[in-house]
Amino acid sequence: MIYRECGVFKATYGADMAIFPIPLDRWGMILILIVGFIGMPFLASEYWLSSILIPFLVFSLAALGLNFLTGYAGQLSLGHAAFMAVGAYASLILYGRYEVPLLLSLLGGGLVAAAVGTVFGIPSLRIKGFYLAVSTLAAQFIIEWGLTHWKWISGGVFGTVDTPPMQVFAWPIDTPLKKYYLVLCFVVLLTTFGKNLVRSQVGRAWMAIRDMDVAAEIIGISLFRHKLLAFAVSSFYAGVAGGLITFTYYGAANIEAFNLMVSFHLLGMIIIGGMGSVLGSFFGGGFITLLPIFINQYSRSFGTVLRSDLLACIELIIFGGLIIFFLIVEPYGLARLWQTLKEKLRLWPFPY
Q1: Closest Cα partner for 140 from 284, 248, 265, 313?
Q2: How many angstroms separate the Cα of 301 from the Cα of each of 286, 294, 297, 306, 338?
Q3: Given 69, 275, 313, 350, which residue has the most CB atoms within 10 angstroms?
C-alpha cells in the first residue's frame, strides 16, 4: 500500500480527468521538476549537463515525436532523423542568416520539418505497414541527398555550418547550465502539450486508427486529416529536437549527425521505452544515452579500458539484443514494467 489510491475522492469532471489524478503521482512530478530546475545545477557537473543531460532530453523529445506517430497513430517511420536534420538546418538559417530570435528560430525549424513531414506522410493514406516503412526510409535518403547537395542550405557535400553565438532576449546562452535550461524549458513545455494532445479527441482518433483504421473510418474519423496531423506533429517535435541538439550539443549542423542509424536508435528508444507512452519515450531516451557510459564504467571496474571501436560494437550488440528481447517478452517496454511495479506497490505487503 505504498502507492495509495484509497481515500482519493474526485468531485468534479476536471479532477477526474487530471493528468495526475493521484496525489502521489502529482507530488512525484513536482519533485522531479524541482530537482530538474533547482537541484540539478548543484548535483550535476558541467560534463553531466553538457554531455549527458542535454542529449538525453533532446533525444527523448525526438523519441516522443516518433511515439506520437508510431506508438499512438500506428504509422511506422524509419526516417525520423531526416526530419531532425530539416529542423536543424532551418533553425540555423533562420537564426544565423535572417536574425530571427532564437526561440522563434527553433520553433520555425520545427514548423519547416512539420511541412516536410506532412509531404512525406501523404503515402500513408494509401499504404501501410511494411510498404509505409519503406516509403519513410526513402524520405531519409531523399532528405539527406537534398540537404547534402543543396549548397544554399548546407554548403555542399563536405559542408558544415557552425552555429553562431546564442542569445535569448540579449542574454547570452554560453554555458552548459544555460544551454541545459534552454533545452529543459522546451522539453517541459512540449511534453506537457503532447501529454494533453494524446488525451484529447485527436489522441483518441490516433489510437482508433492504430487499432483498426477501417473501423475508425466507419465511425466518422477522418483518416486523411488525422494521419497527416500525426506526421506533422511528429516531424515538428523532431525538427525542434534537431535545432536544439545542433545549437546546444553539436555546435554545428552536419548531415552525418542525422543519418540512418540515428533513425534506428530513435525507433529503438520507443521500443525499449514503451510504444504509446509519453513516459516510455523518456525511459528509452535515458536508457540509450546512459548505455555507453554504463558499459564503459563496467569494463573499467575490471581494470580494462575498451577501445572506441570495440565499445561501439558492444553497444550495437546490446542495443539490438534488447530490442529483440523487449519485442518478445514485453512489447510495451519499460513503461509497462513501471506500471507493473506500481500495481505491485498498490497491494504490497498483502498481494492477495
Answers
A1: 265
A2: 22, 11, 6, 11, 29
A3: 69
pLDDT digits (tens, 9 = 90+) for 293-341: 777 667 666 666 667 677 778 777 887 888 888 888 877 888 888 888 8
Please give the helix or strand (H or E) that residue 161 lies within, else none: strand 161-162
pTM > 0.85: yes
Average pLDDT, whole number, for the chain? 85
Q: Partners of 168 in the beta sheet? A: 171
Is 90 exceeded by the pLDDT of residue 124?
A: no
| Distance of alpha carbon 303 from alpha carbon 312, whole angstroms | 19
Residue 103: CB atoms within 10 Å = 14
Q: Is 162 helix (H, G, I), strand (E, B) or coil?
A: strand
Max intra-chain CA distance, the chain: 67
Distance CA 11, CA 306 (A): 59
Contact indicator for 176, 49 with CB cutoff of 8 Å: yes
Half-sphere exposure (Cβ direction) of 248: Cα atoms closer than 13 Å: 34
CB neighbourhood size of 108 (10 A): 22
